[in-house]
Write a structure and sequence with these properties.
Helix content is about 50%, strand content about 10%. By secondary structure, the chain is of the alpha/beta class. The strands form 4 sheets. The protein has a 6-stranded mixed β-sheet, sandwiched between helices. The protein has a two-stranded antiparallel ribbon with strand order 7-8. Strands 9-10 form a two-stranded antiparallel sheet. β11, α14 and β12 form a beta-alpha-beta unit. The longest helix has about 35 residues. The radius of gyration is 27 Å and the shape is globular. The N terminus is likely disordered.
């Protein structure tokens, strides 16, 4: 992980002033949602009054305003009730999108009940929402995605969108947490300092923050040590941290965490407890109280059952639709390959599918004939890590092949593999047999699901990703797959393909 240099007091104040982005971001979301919902409600009523059911005569001015107002009010109230503006998820978590969908379903249900019990909203008004709801959902999700992208750009540039965190824990744990947070600014957190137990307090080095010199010490992974456990609340308020991340240990016991919570309560700072539980989706985690303990129950991943029958249905129906839609592209690409280089139109490659079964993956040929026999001579020029072989400037790739690879057009024939049940639209990267032979226990978990035409590896960097990160993303997907995650990955794939970044 990249470490950031220690910050002085003025640098800290500049960074921490950015925590105000949360209030501005939340306000922008509310305004955007209000505009989208109001527009959708008006569109629904116009359709109701003029197109769907015929002109109802001359609806009164009061009713013309009242129905859209009721629909918009119920929808916005449902968004607020389902915590769609929760600062813990907006701008950083897929749960934000799930809450929007849940709120929409809640609003539609409430409107149906209102129509049944009162004369304010008629059933035909609710039916008209069948047109407006999809429009509104698309608008809500698009608006949130657009605002999130703006925040992500600011995070990457280091100019905003960051939540300041004070890290508390023993030195080794604090270093690990600081490195993880500051090595991934796109997640929205930045560690700005650390407070260590008495045994880890360092020799005083600076009193620039106005703290007692006996509590100020050397850096931890590039951020300053600002004090001990007895001053966490005071330090958090002084540096304007929005949250404190605590790693428990023998020194930092449950009683100590409780005292820290009391300190933070007085200054209005959130308390977060770190765990070593990594790459587990929150949907699989449940907190269960038991005799004064909080037990984290982690549900085992499921690799069969109804969820995967849903996935199979999604794969087949979408693959069939896509095959019809892109058929002109398939014809054009096939003609380009056939007319610009000698050899077959398709390249068939043996890949390892779910459960270790071998299948033949279909791609448009992008290299000259006999390219597989040249791998041994090019090994020293390999740009990939682990068992992969990739070259940024591969001499075997044809001119047309380079274009097809950049925009993933060579992979379109894999729709046939999806229709035959060998692959999924979304899944881990299809692996070669010799790669699988080198897998350890962790990497073999990628074989618990079907490989995919796209996946988290493609939308996160494609061939530019380090091997370990590719494996981590594939294993995460295999263990935490949901239909909603598939939809998000498919949506992000379009952007990754158009940009062409990381494809070679």
């Amino acid at each position: 992980m990249n470490e950031r240099p220690a910050r002085g007091f003025h640098d800290l104040r500049t960074t921490l002033g950015r925590s105000r982005w949360q209030a501005r971001y939340q306000a922008r979301l509310r305004i955007t949602d209000a505009v989208v919902v109001a527009t959708s409600a008006v569109v629904a009523y116009v359709l109701d009054s003029t197109l769907l059911f015929g002109a109802p005569g001359s609806p009164s001015a009061v009713r013309s305003l009242l129905v859209p107002a009721v629909v918009a009010t119920v929808w916005l109230a449902a968004l607020a009730a389902d915590k769609a503006y929760d600062l813990r998820v907006i701008g950083r978590d897929v749960a934000e999108y799930k809450r929007v969908l849940d709120a929409t379903w809640t609003a539609a249900s409430l409107l149906a009940v209102i129509a049944w019990l009162t004369d304010v909203v008629e059933l035909r008004d609710v039916l008209a929402q069948a047109v407006a709801v999809p429009l509104g959902v698309v608008g809500l999700l698009t608006g949130r995605y657009a605002w999130r992208q703006r925040v992500m750009r600011a995070r990457r540039r280091g100019t905003g969108g960051l939540t300041a965190v004070l890290v508390v824990g023993e030195r080794a744990q604090a270093e690990r947490v600081v490195s993880r947070l500051n090595g991934a600014p796109e997640q929205g957190f930045v560690a700005v300092g650390a407070c260590l137990p008495p045994s880890d307090d360092a020799t005083p080095a600076d009193d620039d923050l106005g703290l007692p010199r006996d509590k100020v010490g050397a850096d931890v992974a590039g951020v300053p040590v600002l004090g001990g456990l007895d001053r966490v609340g005071e330090v958090a308020a002084l540096v304007r941290a929005s949250a404190v991340a605590v790693s428990t240990s023998d020194t930092i016991t449950a009683d100590e965490v409780r005292r820290l919570a009391w300190q933070l309560e007085r200054v209005g700072v959130d308390l977060m407890l770190t765990t070593e539980l990594a790459d587990v989706d929150v949907e699989r985690v449940t907190v269960t109280p038991a005799s004064g303990l909080s037990l984290l129950h982690v549900a085992s991943p499921r690799f069969d059952g109804r969820k995967f029958r849903v996935k199979q249905a999604m794969d087949w129906s979408l693959a069939a639709l896509l095959t019809v839609l892109v058929s002109p592209v398939l014809v054009a690409v096939g003609a380009a390959v056939a007319l610009t280089s000698r050899g077959g139109l398709f390249y068939l490659s043996e890949r390892v599918g779910r459960g270790g079964k071998i299948f033949r993956m279909i791609k448009f040929r992008t290299m000259r004939t006999g390219a597989d026999r040249e791998v041994a001579a090019l090994t020293t020029a390999n740009d990939a890590e682990g068992p992969l072989f990739k070259m940024r400037s591969d001499p075997r790739v044809t001119r047309v092949g380079g274009f097809l690879r950049r925009y993933s057009l060579d992979e379109l024939p894999q729709l046939v593999n999806v229709l035959l049940g060998h692959m999924s639209l979304v899944g881990p990267r299809p692996a070669l047999p010799h790669e699988v032979a080198a897998y350890g226990e962790r990497m073999r978990r990628r074989l618990l699901v079907k490989p995919g035409m796209t996946g988290m590896w493609q939308v996160s960097g494609r061939s530019d990703l380090p091997w370990d990160e590719t494996v981590r993303l594939d294993v995460y997907y295999a263990e935490n797959w949901t239909p909603f995650l598939d939809v998000l990955i498919l949506a992000r794939t379009a952007r990754a393909v158009v940009s062409g970044r990381g494809a070679y």
